[in-house]
Specification:
The structure holds two protein chains of two kinds. Helices cover 30% and strands 19% of the residues of chain A. Chain A is built from eleven helices and twelve strands. Chain A is globular. By secondary structure, chain B is an alpha/beta fold. In chain B, strands 2-1-5-10 form a four-stranded mixed beta sheet, with helices on both faces. In chain B, strands 3-4 form a two-stranded antiparallel sheet. Classes of the chains: A alpha/beta, B alpha/beta. Chains A and B meet through helix 4, helix 5, helix 6 and helix 7 of A and helix 3, strand 9 and helix 4 of B.
Chain lengths: 296, 222
């Protein structure tokens, strides 16, 4: 079935397709960036690498539980402050750049747990000033009093709660398996926090494995987990999550991830990784050639 | 869950832990597993295969409910999706994981340090502002520990463990919607010198009496 705007003579529906470099240019220094995916899955690495090459700095990163995605942004000095429930290299240990940057004081941490992240994003998505979470006994308010505000209310029936301020990402970075030119996004596996982040953010950049036609996409509307009206940029990149995987399409490159975890454990190795796999590659095509070699 | 000729192969600590945990899990209990939960995942699968065929467990990150893949994979891995009983969306699932006191019974937590009361540190060893070891982060340990019928527990990083089992759902039937109030020790409990020395602000879990603590002899990896 031809859509009206596909016909000759009709106004064209606006395409949101762009390159990683164009998408990275939508992020300006000092902005709040929300990152989707989860550890080794659905991390929009191609856009992250483009941001690093563009020299984006001073970012306040609000990250889903991540691995090399947030860690590489930290390694490259893009991040001024990080808010995340956790970062881990899964079976390969602690996140190396994150660990070092926190220990040296180079990275400010807004210490939050999962409930605070979810509440702050949901409040943002709902245009409410704050969300509520239960106070169940935690030291987090001591290190992050701005985020965990003791909250009592006559309607709360004596419940001990925290008000968590809304966090509105200026830009969301997420990854879906399929998308059309108008921003409709289909997921072939888990969605993680992507929908919530997309609803909360002002601008949504979606990297996709495959750009499909509206006809193909609308054959399976149930796979569309984020509608195009929430999305501003669609960035098709083949294997753009590498070294992470894209659920339903390709697996994480565990050899590369393990090598990164080892190499980035010290400053020199971290620099070497960035030089070889980010700055040394003009674009994603060059990166895809470079990864024939395991980091060492 | 590998099959071995058991008489000649000594079980690993991870295997012992999985067996121990599986024995804490009651039939019809509902549990939540997060990242790095392979041991707990094995425990749930073992329990389902033996005494608890009606056990429910779900992946916090991916939303998979009762994976039946026969593979022991990271709990967020797509390999667990085919054949599972449901695939929920985390953006909705957080209602169950982060707020509900009546949907689930147990969770499995790990961390860098745990004390004899079940206070759990997942954030930092040493001063929070300049940690000797920076851990992964606060996770969601406080809420998971607080909302579980009895929460689980902890061990050095990479050797998580757990559990619980009183049955929040049964309790829910008694108490009605949202009727259960859990009192937490958490940061307010005292007496652990080691945790106190290591800086305080990173303990994120609570209520030692609710925990079954398993300290697998793994090394806290740094």
């Amino acid at each position: 079935v031809a859509l009206p705007n596909d016909g000759d003579g009709c106004p064209r529906r606006r395409s949101k397709v762009m390159t990683p470099e164009q998408a990275a240019a939508l992020v300006t220094g000092g902005q709040t960036v929300g990152l989707g995916g989860w550890t080794f899955y659905n991390t929009p690495m191609a856009v992250i690498r483009a941001m690093i090459r563009a020299g984006t700095s001073g970012v306040r990163l609000v990250s889903s539980p991540g691995a090399i995605g947030p860690d590489l942004l930290i390694a490259a000095g893009c991040v001024a402050e990080l808010a995340t429930p956790f970062i881990t290299m899964e079976q390969f240990g602690l996140a190396p750049a994150f660990r070092r940057a926190v220990a040296s004081g180079a990275l400010a941490v807004s210490e939050i747990d999962g409930p605070a992240l979810a509440a702050s994003l949901r409040a943002a998505a709902d245009d409410l000033p704050f969300g509520l979470i239960h106070n169940l006994g935690t030291d987090l308010p001591k290190v992050n009093p701005a985020m965990y505000r003791p909250f009592r209310h006559e309607f709360a029936d004596g419940e001990d709660l925290f008000a968590v301020p809304a966090v509105v990402p200026d830009v969301a970075l997420i990854h879906a398996q399929r998308g059309d030119a108008y921003g409709n996004l289909q997921y072939l596996g888990a969605t993680f926090f992507d929908q919530l982040i997309a609803r909360a953010a002002r601008v949504v950049i979606a990297q996709v494995d495959e750009l499909v036609s509206s006809e193909e996409l609308t054959e399976q509307p149930r796979l569309t987990k984020i509608p195009g009206f929430e999305v501003d940029a669609v960035v098709p990149v083949e294997r753009g999550c590498h070294p992470c995987g894209s659920q339903g399409n390709y697996l994480a490159d565990l050899d590369h991830l393990q090598a990164y975890a080892r190499l980035a454990a010290d400053e020199a190795g971290q620099r070497k990784y960035l030089d070889q796999f980010v700055f040394g590659c003009a674009d994603e095509a060059a990166y895809q050639l470079a990864i024939a070699e395991v980091p060492a | 869950l590998t099959e071995t000729s058991a008489s000649t192969v000594a079980p690993t600590v991870a295997e012992f832990t999985a067996v121990f945990l599986s024995r804490q899990l009651r039939d019809e209990a509902v549990g939540i597993l997060g990242t790095r939960s392979e041991i707990a995942e094995a425990a749930c699968a073992l329990a389902q295969a033996t005494h608890a065929p009606g056990l429910w467990y779900l992946s916090g990150p991916s939303g998979v409910v009762n994976p039946r893949s026969g593979q022991l994979r990271p709990i967020a891995d797509e390999a667990l999706i085919p054949g599972s009983e449901a695939l929920l969306e985390l953006s909705d699932n957080i209602d169950i994981i982060d707020w509900s006191r009546r949907t689930w019974d147990f969770a499995v937590l790990g961390g860098i340090q745990v004390d004899q009361f079940g206070n759990l540190n997942t954030v930092a060893v040493g001063d929070w502002t300049a940690p000797k070891v920076r851990g992964p982060g606060a996770i969601g340990a406080s809420v998971l520990a607080g909302h579980a019928g009895r929460a689980p527990h902890a061990a050095p990083q990479r050797a998580p463990v757990v559990l619980a089992g009183r049955g929040a759902r049964r309790h829910r039937l008694r108490a009605g919607r949202g009727g259960r109030r859990i009192h937490h020790g958490g940061a307010r409990s005292s007496g652990d010198d080691n945790l106190a020395r290591s800086g305080g602000p990173h303990r994120s879990a609570a209520a030692g009496r609710k925990f079954v603590t398993v300290s697998a002899s793994g090394q806290a990896r740094g």
